[in-house]
Design a protein that fits this description.
alpha/beta, about 200 residues, 7 helices, 7 strands, Aspartate Aminotransferase, domain 2, seven-stranded mixed β-sheet
Length: about 200
């Protein structure tokens, strides 16, 4: 992404999500799916685990497997609103856990995590500093029934140094064919992803 585009995205995060990122903390790619793929390419080693709360977007486990990781599927039943709970998260984490995927509002369930939900998950994650958090927030503006969106980054600012906030223009702005995805995250990860992007 050009400097101007990354500055605009940083402004969006400040204005809409209450997140303070600079242009150098932003990476742009050909859609949010490539953002996620590049993040996994930059970090996953054989046998690393990625926790996927189910129901989940169909491409998540395939990208993890393609890059040598192991998907760990956690069934989130209707009784929890199809949301991951702290107890389910704690049970799923192992010494091999590299990533936790969160998707709010969720595809395909429509599940929306409240700020309290996210803070509760953040409390569990505080005990497991090896776990990176991928917060897929591409549906942030598609909300119904008076629900409100809160970014994981806003709810859990203490985890900023290991959180990747993923977003894009295809859903909120009906710009699917433009293939514009973007993310904000810690400088080492963003640098690694940018290097992968420039070589692809």
């Amino acid at each position: 992404g050009t400097g101007e585009v990354r500055e605009a995205i940083a402004g969006k995060f400040r204005r809409e999500n209450g997140l303070n990122y600079m242009a150098d903390d932003i990476v742009v790619a050909n859609g949010a799916k490539q953002i996620i793929f590049n993040a996994l390419m930059a970090t996953l080693e054989s046998g690393d685990e990625a926790i996927l709360p189910a129901p989940y977007f169909v491409s998540y486990p395939e990208m993890v497997k393609l890059l040598g990781g192991t998907p760990v599927v956690v069934e989130c039943p209707e009784t929890t609103g199809f949301r991951l709970t702290p107890a389910l998260l704690e049970k799923a984490i192992t010494p091999r856990t590299k990533w936790l995927f969160l998707n709010t509002p969720g595809n395909p369930s429509g599940a929306v995590y409240s700020e309290a939900d996210l803070k509760a998950l953040g409390t569990v994650l505080a005990k497991h500093p090896q776990v990176l958090i991928l917060s897929d927030e591409i549906y942030e503006h598609i909300l119904f029934d008076g629900r409100e969106f809160v970014s994981f980054g806003k709810a859990c600012p203490g985890h900023k140094d290991r959180t990747l906030i993923v977003n894009g223009v295809s859903k909120s702005y009906a710009m699917t064919g433009w293939r514009v995805g973007y993310a904000a995250g810690p400088a080492p990860l963003i640098k690694a992803m940018s290097t992968i992007q420039s070589q692809s």
